Amino acid sequence: MDREALQERYGIIGESTAIKQVIDKIMQISKTDITVLLQGESGVGKDVTARAIHSLSKRNRNNLVIVNCGAIPEGIIESELFGHEKGSFTGAHEARKGYFEKADGGTIFLDEIGDTPKNIQVKLLRVLESGEFFRVGSSKMFTADVRVIAATNQDLWELVQDGKFREDLYYRLDTVKIKLPPLRDRQDDIIPIFRKFVTEFSSKYDSVFQGFSDEAKDLLISYRWPGNIRELRNVAEQLVVLEKSQFIDKDRLQKYLKGRQHLGSTDNLPVLSRKEFTDDEDDDFESGSGTDMGIIYRALLEMQGDISDLKKMLAKFVYSSFSDKELKALPSAVPRDIDPNDISGHIYRDSSDKDSLGISTPAEPQEDEDHDIIQDFFSDKEIPSIEEAEKFLIEQALKRFEGNRRKASDALGVSERTLYRKLDQYDLQ
């Protein structure tokens, strides 16, 4: 089965590079029994991916058992997963098979695996490694031949660092990881997916969808979609049912793009790609005119937090080569007679570094090579993105400290846990 046939069979729509990579990995691992970890935000289609993997596997004639670990109360999750014997607890009127027994010969999909209690994680590790488990209230060992697919919308390694998830179980689950991209990173796929949903709901509710304007189309693409495909599906259904036979314009569509409305949230703001900023728009931006001003302003607000973190990281990294005494001697403001566009820096060691006229002289950088590298990187014609700058600083910190992550995280002004997460995000070794 080729990629196009697989997408058509399981309703996975999209031509973006990100979704093609997901499909290719599904085809690559489906015929094996290897454990798979699906990672992605809520609503990106982890359950659809699990079904596709099972259906393409040699186990497809047996059960696919879907378990939402986060929805099962802690007091009964062991019984649900591994079963129980009659009389093992109040209300256990008869013996009962657990999900692993029901999935014997097939596949078990453990959704929201990060919410599993730690006492259950030990037993999950045992059944993953040997297929052995005990029912609640029984001393008899049971076995199950099960292929495990796990899914999470959390950072499992961060949970490991916080002591909430077992490290040995993490490595056992993280054999093959498939990262499912959020919808905002698949902008080219939004309209085709939306049209599919509209067609389905129009048929289901015997309704006619009259289409939408170009402005509404642009809004669909630029919206952040915090709920991902699940939210897009809900919006399509609402439009078909509540706006029956109505042509959808931007204002009409806006009513259904709610996002998360808590204070400070930017999830309902549009996403702008860098290609949207062209030289032709520079004049409009400077004069305050143009229809994109509102969108650009919102995007700048959204970037504010990331830029603040990046500035702290950059400052911490640049100044890490200076002693505490030298840092205390830094001036609180740049003198007026110094060109603010001169990025070579006017860093003063202490008050003793003055010439005979009492004028402070710049200190020699202790790390000339690092200084030149950073200056060259940020002096390129094209301004780097937040992600590019962050990746660059992490690489330079690791290089300076010869791979010592603790020292690198201290120099960058972030926790070691955050650094590990960034290394995984940018696929850095």
From TrEMBL:
Q: Which UniProt keywords apply?
A: ATP-binding, DNA-binding, Nucleotide-binding, Transcription, Transcription regulation
UniProt protein name: Sigma-54-dependent Fis family transcriptional regulator
Query: What's one Pfam family here?
Result: AAA_lid_14
Any single GO molecular-function term of the entry would be: sequence-specific DNA binding
Residues annotated as domain Sigma-54 factor interaction: 12-241
Give the Basic and acidic residues compositional bias ranges: 347-356
GO BP, one annotated term: regulation of DNA-templated transcription
Where is the region Disordered?
Answer: 340-368
Instruction: Please give the PROSITE patterns that the UniProt record associates with this protein.
Output: SIGMA54_INTERACT_2, SIGMA54_INTERACT_3, SIGMA54_INTERACT_4
What superkingdom heads the lineage?
A: Bacteria
Cross-referenced InterPro entries? AAA+_ATPase, AAA_lid_NorR, Homeodomain-like_sf, HTH_Fis, P-loop_NTPase, Sigma_54_int, Sigma_54_int_dom_ATP-bd_2, Sigma_54_int_dom_CS
Question: Which residue spans traverse the membrane?
Answer: none
